[in-house]
Amino acid sequence: AVVSTQSTGDRWSWQSKGTKTAEETKSSIANVRLYDGEDKTNFDKGSLAITTHRLIWSDGRQGIELPLKLITKVTSAEATFTKSAKVILTLSAREHSPRP
What CA–CA distance (Å, rounded) separates 23 from 65? Predict the structure, then answer.
């Protein structure tokens, strides 16, 4: 399985340990590769968990997370002869800090 974020791969952060208050894992899938748009990342062959608060990708050595509140749209692309099926996440615009 492939998960692609559209030109916003910098929105993932290193996984915090433990779960958040009232957080529950809803589903998970193994053997997931993350993409940044059309570009492959080094995050390959991990598992992706969907919780009530975030997406968590982990390969057992390292993990990254993405808060669900950043996801504004979810679409899918079917597999073809040369490409795997993809779940495409559109993320909200990055909030800019006001300048002093």
Answer: 14
Closest CA to 24 of 44, 53, 46, 59: 53
**DSSP characters over 24-86:** -EEEEEEEEEEEETTEE-S--SEEEEEESSEEEEE-SS-EEEEEGGGEEEEEEE---SSS--E
- What the block records as the tokens of 29 is 């899938």
Question: What is the structure's pLDDT at 39?
Answer: 85
Q: Tokens 């053997």 sit at which residue?
A: 31
User: What 3-state class would DSSP assign to 3?
Assistant: strand
Instruction: Kindly state the tokens that stand for 78.
Output: 């079917």
Residues of the chain short of pLDDT 50, as ranges, are 7, 97-100
pLDDT of residue 7: 47
- pTM confidence score: 0.78
The predicted pLDDT at position 37 comes to: 82
At 17, list the tokens. Answer: 């340990």
